[in-house]
User: Fold these one by one.
Assistant:
Number 1:
Amino acid sequence: MIVGVGNPLRGDDGIGPLLIQRLKGKTEFALLDCGEVPENFAQRIIDFSPDTVILVDAADWKGSRGQIKRIPEGEIANASLSTHNASLRLFIDYLRRQTRAKIIVIGVQAGDRGLMDSMSPEVEEAAEKLERWIVGSSSLQGEEDPTR
């Protein structure tokens, strides 16, 4: 299952929902746009019973705008994921306990995240790269890592 997190009205913060929109009809993976409140979708994810959950969200680790990074769980608070760092960590812990799924967090280095900001070209390019990675894979295992 691929879960997009973020607010499309806040520029680069909308990477998660944008990716979910781009993937509709192009992949066999279950897709879920959680907006800014992924915790409100926990039961839907649990009911789906995925073995792997890939969370895609805007982040800030002072990297290059549009850079894609797999964020280890221990770094979630340090990467300032979108607007919900503390709740995202709790959400991940809860999902793991309820589903025993492998949880992968993919962050995209954001730039502008102000209300009504446009998404930057670099982050749109990151969405395209992630889309190609997901659509080109049936399992996401052994495929070229988009974070490189």
Number 2:
Amino acid sequence: MNLNIKSWEYFKISDIFDTFQQGKANQGMLDEGNDCFYVGAKKSNNGVMFHCAYDSNLIQKGNCIIFICNGEGSVGYANYMNEDFIGTTDIVAGYSKFLNEYNGLFLATILSQERPKYSFGRKWKTHLKSTTIKLPITQDKNPDWLFMENYVKSLKHKHIITQNSNGFIKLKVEKWKDFNVSSLLSIINGSGITKEEIEDNPGAFNAVQSGEDNNGVLGKINKEYCISQNYAISEKPCLTVARSGSAGFVSYQPEGCVVGDSAKILLLPDDVADEKVYLFIQTILTSIRFKYAYGRKVTREKYLNEIIKLPIVYQANGKPYKDKTHRFSEKGYVPDWEFMKDYIESLPYGDRLK
């Protein structure tokens, strides 16, 4: 199906949606659990911050568009949410009797084009209902919901299949122990890399900056050029963390990358580095991202001193434990790298990983 945008008409957001509902929660109001999504000012992962316990006083219905009305780096984005959730006060949910998962994805894409208007600290909430967007129309000049639905259905894609059931390994977080990031990861500070350099030196090597879109990848650049400039690179799989902008956003780079001055490379020791371990650690590090909101920057010293909880394995006789990284734990335990792999593998679609 083709998009003939010239025939589209403008509609106010207030005319598209029947009702609007602001999010009610902040993190301090939540209990630990895996019952529902906690959704906030986050473009990636469909706005999901983490899972939490169900609370009937805070829950909001799914099948809605989530407008991110506040939040550094993400204000102005819109996501479609199909499941019930708990939302932060930074979001507003829009509901329409015509909305479904297909035209919802269409609408979220169109609405997110409004984001540039809300950069530099501008908030969306004040002007949300009066914002106008262009949409396909029916003969009687109403939004053509059926066209939007059929257009998304027509897009070519292959369904990803998994042999894993929902019986994934349970997390017993209460038995996890604290670890300093410095005992787990090494950090390489980024430098340089501009869009102009990427355009002038095209290649196949990912160049990562602080954005969340496209997994933080700004573009593809020539690796040899980066080496010649002595830029911060990893030629093996790694994590990256945004220093500013989307500060604290962590991405996994399976082919390695070069990072600019608004990001940093995070590396596990070679003998425990594994795609599944990296994905596990990425999720844990994302849970501390909130510490870098409101303009706080990720510095090497501060990030290395962060403390995260991880599953552990004990030395049976209580003696100092030597793990595969050739480091000792006087406490008699080290991170359970094998559990991390097994857990990721047990998740739906975990069997699709290498």
Number 3:
Amino acid sequence: MPKALATSELPSTVEEMFCFSVYAASHAINRAYAPLLKPLGLTYPQYITLTVLWESDGLRVGDLSQRLKMESSTLTPLLKRLEKLGHIKRQRGKTDERQVYIFLTKTGLALKKAAPSITACMINDTGMDLKALRALIASLSKLTDALTSTQ
């Protein structure tokens, strides 16, 4: 457990707060992805959902929700939109109809071809090398895990 901070050590402006930096970076990432995803007709949340499915097709909604660190109540409307676009299909479990599985369609799978160039553009746009990006990912994962474990 880290030592308690003195009031004088606490951030005094929004720019000094780690939460604001993460919030601002998240918005900047969404804005940077938008022009790359527009030709595909996707939003960033739809794209990362498809990315997980490209790795592991046929996930249960609950497992997909966990991978995306997203509440299933937020994920369900997103999945409905992806299904309406023809990129996925939802299917009830054969042994337990309460379970819903998500499968890519041919259209959804075909979108994967665009992923490497989108990823390369985003990496280049950061101005960071891969070592620095991996360190950032590790730090953000540690932050996410720490904050999640306190909830």
Number 4:
Amino acid sequence: MGTTISLKRVSGYKFEAQNSLDKTMVLDGPAKIGGTDDGFRPMEMLLVGLAGCSSFDVLHTLEKGRQEVEDLDIKVDAERVDAIPAVFSKIHVHFAASGKVTEKRLEQAVSLSIEKYCSVAAMLCKTAEITHSIEIK
């Protein structure tokens, strides 16, 4: 199963990423190295990947369990080591759901995603401790 993206320099440290479906997003570096802070940083994109991957798993699991999810918000906080490479050492993912969702089912869905199904979590847990919390809104 292959995945291909392309990255094209726009200017300075600003790049546009494109996937095979022609969807795009902007990456940019910090002003201190010549960027303009107009896009996501590469390490932020890893956290977006984690949030997206796990949110898909959680929604799918809840819907299979006949939970009626109205909304699902995910917040990711992360810490990096003070060394090069500055990998993530701690990542906390918070899931807040609303609708006809029980706390027990939400916790089960989140645990299954983070500990078993989410490919991004499986990769990131090699260098970072990943924790999670839930909330019913």
